[in-house]
Amino acid sequence: MHPFDLSPILPQSTLIEPEPDRLQGWSHPWLYDLSAPHRVPALLELSLMRAGAISGRIFSIRGTAVTLGRYAPETGPVDIDLGVLPEHERLRVGLPHLRIGRDSDGWWIEPMTMFYPTELDGVMLSAGGARLKDGAVLTVGDVHFKVNYGRDADKNPAAERPLPPCLRLKRDGATTGINIPLSPPSMTFGRSSPLTGEVDCDLSALPDAERVYLGRQHARFLLDGGRWYVEPTGRAPIFINRQPPLQQTHQLMTGDEVGLGNVLLTFMGSASMGELFELDDDPDTTDFGGNR
Length: 292
Description:
21 strands; 4 helices; 2 domains; Tumour Suppressor Smad4; 292 residues; disordered N terminus; mainly beta; single chain; 5-stranded mixed sheet
């Protein structure tokens, strides 16, 4: 069986409103605007269709290699999480379901599971995938999308030069421009609460669909011997470069992707300025095995 064929495993509800800890009178300053607008324009848009018509909901793709499906601790992060959809729609969405990427010839799509169907304009896709054309109708399980090439895809954002060491928040397959500095000797990440106390970096301000999988005491980043490490501080999983959940302290390298649940961050270590410029030339072209 394909390693991703663990469906159906339904995620917990992502609607947490209002925040329970805030109702209890607990307050802790949020240091970062974690819901700030994305600095990268949409390269591709998937417009959700219902009853044969555009619903108005759009899933934006901003990176050139992304995964789409549902997050689960057993299978790890996805760039576009369809677990936010109603249960009857997400029921046949895989964990994850497919890859979408772009190369010199344009966009392509490749199923990551054959357990649930992927169709393009009504034609079932094989494991080899197909080219993804503007205006096509993409069907993921029981969910239909109209494919639209990004209208602002040719607008290049201003070059970003983050100061290491830091964690760069990723969303929709690309870094958002939100950078969280790392301060020695160590920093804990999670969600401050009256039950577990404060953390050094409170990620409570993340959108519901991301923070629902975040542990209150999720991870600790520590500096030792001039190198940064990450270690689990609870049961919530940590994923390094989409590998199986971390079980012990792990040394980080510049460019590593760190998944705290389905919150994706890119580690920027103590690199030289030359390394920074090289990384920023094309920072969001992670290859998940679908390079063509």
